[in-house]
Amino acid sequence: MSAAVMETPRESKRDAVINVRLPTKLRDLIDSAAAVVGKTRTDFILESARKHAVDVLLDQQLFSLETAQYEAFLRALDEPPQPNARLKQLLASKSPWQK
Q1: 98 with 7: CB under 8 angstroms?
Q2: For residues 33 and 44, what is the distance between their CA atoms, to the nearest angstrom?
Q3: Exposure class string for 31-55: b at 16+ Cβ within 10 A, else e
Q4: What pLDDT is attached to residue 22?
Q5: How far is it, in rounded angstroms, from Cα 22 to Cα 41?
Q6: Residue 60 near residue 23, CB atoms below 8 Å
Q7: pTM here?
Q8: Nearest Cα to 49, choosing from 11, 95, 25, 18?
């Protein structure tokens, strides 16, 4: 995972705004949790949202295969394709959470 993803909210430039309305009870819950870990409400929300976003994106990388599909997958790993322009572009691209 990139260093940018691991940065705390205060270490990166804040150049976008998100406004959200929420019930007072939820705000109070968030404030209580933020206080427990010594963070501001904003930092707590940003860190929590970032962690969840990375988890959601990583969950999209997990897949299940039947035995025959798994064996075909292993064969493909053992015999990787020759590098071409599209493969080089894919491998050079950043993960969604690094953008």
Answers
A1: no
A2: 8
A3: eeebeeeebeeeebbbbeebeeebe
A4: 95
A5: 13
A6: no
A7: 0.55
A8: 18
Contacts 24+ apart (CB under 8 A), 40-49: 42/9, 43/8, 43/9, 43/10, 46/9, 47/8, 47/9
- Considering only residues 25 and 13, tell me which one the structure prediction assigns the higher pLDDT: 25
For 38, phi and psi rounded to 5 degrees?
70, 35
Asked if residue 3 has pLDDT above 80, the reply is no
Q: Where are the domains of the chain?
A: 3-98
Could you report the per-residue pLDDT of 31-47, keeping only the tens digit for each? Answer: 999 999 999 999 999 99
Distance, in Å, from the CA atom of 17 to the CA atom of 79, rounded to the nearest integer, reads 47
pLDDT tens for 19-30 read: 999 999 999 999
**CA nearest 30: which of 41, 20, 21?**
41
